[in-house]
């Protein structure tokens, strides 16, 4: 199937318009951009049908972008008609995780390698959604697989859409830790955010999941894990740690190496009580979402619409089940224009999640089998006093019984 056929016969325009106007905003005031043989901004439509006609008649249509809401029909003259509101969007790209091998021998981003690293994207979605809820009170969140190498997370709470560019940048700064430019490990600011919102156990659960799916099975990945700790310069730890980097590289797989590293670090906690902090920052560098400040911060920024088709992979950028990020399989669950037969079932399943999931329920942790896969292994070894074990099963969602304080980033 070609892209123009997809946008003519398969794209869910009605569902898109319903989503983008879920807070009562006027569709005619929303900026669309069409990308094909040329690129056209400031497209205004008054209905889903008009948007479909505009897309189908656009030469070589490849994708559609959406931007901000204006006081009237969007135009180039932003001085007299500035953008007023926009969905709060986040772009999480696997290529921003420099430790991830997502490029093939030719240096091109590989959809297959990105598929293997999906749990990294799932961890970012899970952590980001929890932060948006507990730190800012946002609950109307839609997670969308980008089609190849990451995810887009869109927030449709009315207060979030009303944020200025400065406030949007502040949200990103808060989540990114707003401190320093450390590359080997996460900053202390990120660790502080993790601690403030009681996410430490969840962070280690997701890191263990990355270990279990084989992201650290190569010798180079295991050695890099130890190098990032930067412990070789501490001579007083030599007796306990030995050749930790070589030992990790010689292990059978990533799981064995990780358990060995944790045991060694636990053995030096009395000599180096700061080791827990160092380990937290290491794990956070792998797990914590890495946000593109430009995508989120600029109120006039354009973002690809959900369910757009990815030009290189041919996959549909579909919505992901808000209760099962970890179970999503891009290769199987994302409809593809390159399949011999169009997968109606996969498309129908993805469309079930095409809405801003909003309620006042605190999201519960992780998949049912994670606790079993951890039992007696990494988390037990981690100990670090407060990491005893991860929840073995999701429990019934807990209703909020306390009154939420308004975030200073929310407009009155």
- What name goes with the CATH superfamily of the domain at 3-92 and 140-176 and 293-360? DNA primase, PRIM domain
SS strand fraction? 5-15%
Q: Order of SSEs, N→C?
A: HHEEHEEEHHEEHHHHHHHHHHEHHEHHE
Radius of gyration: 23 Å
Kindly provide the name of the CATH class of the domain at 3-92 and 140-176 and 293-360.
Alpha Beta
Tell me the distance between the termini: 48 Å
Shape: globular
Query: How many runs of DSSP E, i.e. beta strands?
Result: 10
Residue-averaged pLDDT: 85
Descriptive overview:
The radius of gyration is 23 Å and the shape is globular. It is built from 19 helices and ten strands. Strand 6 (about 140-145) and strand 7 (about 150-155) form a beta hairpin. Helix 2 (about 15-20) packs across helix 3 (about 50-55), helix 5 (about 120-135) runs antiparallel to helix 9 (about 200-210) and helix 10 (about 220-230) runs antiparallel to helix 12 (about 245-250). The chain has a domain at about 5-90 and about 140-175 and about 295-360: DNA primase, PRIM domain (Alpha-Beta Complex). It has about 400 residues and is of the alpha+beta class.
Would you spell out the secondary-structure blueprint of this structure?
Layout: H1 3-9, H2 13-20, E1 30-35, E2 39-43, H3 48-56, E3 63-70, E4 83-85, E5 88-93, H4 111-116, H5 118-136, E6 141-145, E7 150-155, H6 158-161, H7 165-176, H8 188-196, H9 200-212, H10 219-229, H11 238-241, H12 244-250, H13 254-267, H14 275-287, H15 293-297, E8 303-304, H16 330-333, H17 344-351, E9 361-362, H18 370-374, H19 378-382, E10 398-399
Helix pairs in contact: 1-3, 2-3, 5-9, 9-14, 10-12, 10-13, 12-13
């Amino acid at each position: 199937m070609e892209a123009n056929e997809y946008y003519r016969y398969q794209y869910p325009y009605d569902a898109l318009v319903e989503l983008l106007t879920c807070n009562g905003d006027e569709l005619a005031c929303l900026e669309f951009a069409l990308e094909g043989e040329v690129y056209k901004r400031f497209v205004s439509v008054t209905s889903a049908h008009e948007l479909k006609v505009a897309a189908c008649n656009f030469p070589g249509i490849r994708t559609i972008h959406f931007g901000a809401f204006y006081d009237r029909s969007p135009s180039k003259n932003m001085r007299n008609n500035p953008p007023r509101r926009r969905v709060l969007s986040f772009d999480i790209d696997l290529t921003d995780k420099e430790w991830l091998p997502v490029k093939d021998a030719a240096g091109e981003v590989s959809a297959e390698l990105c598929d293997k690293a999906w749990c990294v994207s799932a961890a970012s979605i899970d952590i980001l959604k929890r932060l948006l809820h507990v730190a800012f009170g946002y609950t109307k969140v839609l997670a969308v697989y980008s089609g190849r190498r990451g995810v887009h997370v869109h927030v449709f709470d009315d207060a979030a859409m009303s944020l200025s560019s400065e406030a949007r940048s502040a949200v990103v700064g808060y989540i990114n830790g707003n401190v320093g430019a450390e590359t080997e490990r996460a900053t202390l600011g990120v660790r502080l955010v993790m601690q403030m919102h009681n996410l430490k156990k969840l962070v280690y659960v997701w890191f263990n999941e990355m270990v279990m799916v084989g992201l650290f099975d190569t010798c180079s990945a295991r050695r890099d894990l130890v190098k990032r700790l930067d412990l070789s310069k501490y001579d007083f730890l030599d007796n306990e740690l030995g050749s930790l980097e070589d030992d990790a590289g010689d292990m059978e797989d990533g799981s064995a190496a990780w358990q060995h590293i944790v045991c060694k670090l636990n053995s030096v906690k009395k000599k180096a009580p700061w080791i827990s902090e160092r380990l937290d920052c290491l794990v956070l560098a792998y797990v914590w979402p890495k946000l593109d400040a430009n995508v989120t911060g600029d109120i006039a920024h354009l973002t690809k619409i959900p369910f757009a088709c990815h030009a290189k992979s041919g996959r549909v950028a579909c919505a992901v089940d808000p209760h099962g990020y970890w179970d999503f399989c891009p290769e199987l669950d994302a409809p593809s224009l390159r399949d011999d037969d169009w997968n109606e079932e996969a498309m129908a399943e993805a469309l079930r999640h095409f809405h801003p999931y909003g309620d006042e329920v605190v999201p519960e942790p992780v998949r049912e089998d994670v606790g079993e896969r951890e039992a007696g292994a990494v988390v037990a070894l981690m100990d670090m006093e407060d990491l005893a074990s991860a929840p073995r099963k999701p429990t019934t969602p807990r209703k909020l019984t306390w009154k939420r304080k308004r975030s200073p980033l929310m407009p009155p």
